[in-house]
C-alpha cells in the first residue's frame, strides 16, 4: 500500500535563524537541488512514521540501507518504537549521477536467520533508480520476511515504488549527513 507523498517545496529551503548554525548543505555553484536540513529531518521522519502507523503496518525490525539509510533508519526505529534494527550495506552510487553497473551488497552481511515471518521495514534515503531498493526487497522476500519500504524521497524514474515516501522530487538531493566531503585524511569518497 503506497502512501501519497506530499508535494516537494517549489524551491530549496531558505536559511532561517534556526538553521543558520547548520553547515551549508547547498553547493555555491551547480544545479538546483532538493535540500534536507538537520532541522527538517525530524519533521520528515515523524510524518513518514505516521504514514506507516496509519497503514496498520507494525514492523518488528527496521532494516536501514547503508549508507544513506542509516540516519533515517535509526530515526524511524525510534519514531515507531521498534527496537529490532539491522543494516544492509549496498553500494550503487559512486558520485552524483555515477553508478556501478549493478548494486552490490557489501560486508559485513546482516544475519537474516530470524527474519522469516517478521514484519520488516526497509528504510533508505531515496528511491532514485530504485535498483538498490529492489535488490534489498528481493533479498528479504527470499528470506521469508513480510517487508515494506520507506524512503524520504522518491524520484519519478524509480523501478520500484516504495510503500511509504515522504516526498517526490526529480532534483538531486543534498542530505545533511552527506553534504560535506570526508574530512581530510579520511578514506576518499571512491573507496
From TrEMBL:
<protein>
    <submittedName>
        <fullName>Phosphoribosyltransferase</fullName>
    </submittedName>
</protein>
<keyword id="KW-0808">Transferase</keyword>
<feature type="region of interest" description="Disordered">
    <location>
        <begin position="1"/>
        <end position="30"/>
    </location>
</feature>
<dbReference type="GO" id="GO:0016757">
    <property type="term" value="F:glycosyltransferase activity"/>
</dbReference>
<feature type="domain" description="Phosphoribosyltransferase">
    <location>
        <begin position="40"/>
        <end position="179"/>
    </location>
</feature>
<dbReference type="InterPro" id="IPR029057">
    <property type="entry name" value="PRTase-like"/>
</dbReference>
<dbReference type="InterPro" id="IPR000836">
    <property type="entry name" value="PRTase_dom"/>
</dbReference>
<keyword id="KW-0328">Glycosyltransferase</keyword>
<dbReference type="Pfam" id="PF00156">
    <property type="entry name" value="Pribosyltran"/>
</dbReference>
Amino acid at each position: 500500500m503506497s502512501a501519497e507523498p506530499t508535494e516537494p517545496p517549489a524551491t530549496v529551503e531558505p536559511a532561517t535563524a534556526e538553521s543558520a548554525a547548520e553547515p551549508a548543505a547547498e553547493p555555491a555553484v551547480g544545479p538546483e537541488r532538493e535540500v534536507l536540513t538537520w532541522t527538517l529531518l525530524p519533521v520528515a521522519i515523524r510524518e513518514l512514521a505516521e504514514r506507516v502507523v496509519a497503514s496498520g503496518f507494525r514492523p518488528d525490525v527496521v532494516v536501514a540501507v547503508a549508507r544513506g539509510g542509516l540516519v533515517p533508519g535509526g530515526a524511524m526505529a525510534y519514531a515507531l518504537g521498534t527496537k529490532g534494527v539491522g543494516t544492509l550495506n549496498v553500494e550503487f552510487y559512486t558520485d552524483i549521477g555515477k553508478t556501478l553497473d549493478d548494486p552490490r551488497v557489501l560486508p559485513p552481511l546482516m544475519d537474516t536467520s530470524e527474519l522469516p515471518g517478521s514484519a520488516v521495514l526497509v528504510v533508505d534515503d531515496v528511491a532514485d533508480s530504485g535498483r538498490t531498493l529492489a535488490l534489498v526487497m528481493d533479498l528479504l522476500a527470499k528470506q521469508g520476511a513480510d517487508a515494506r519500504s520507506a524512503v524520504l524521497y522518491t524520484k519519478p524514474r524509480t523501478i520500484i515504488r516504495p510503500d511509504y515516501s515522504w516526498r517526490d522530487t526529480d532534483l538531486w538531493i543534498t542530505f545533511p549527513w552527506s553534504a560535506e566531503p570526508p574530512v581530510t585524511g579520511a578514506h576518499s569518497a571512491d573507496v
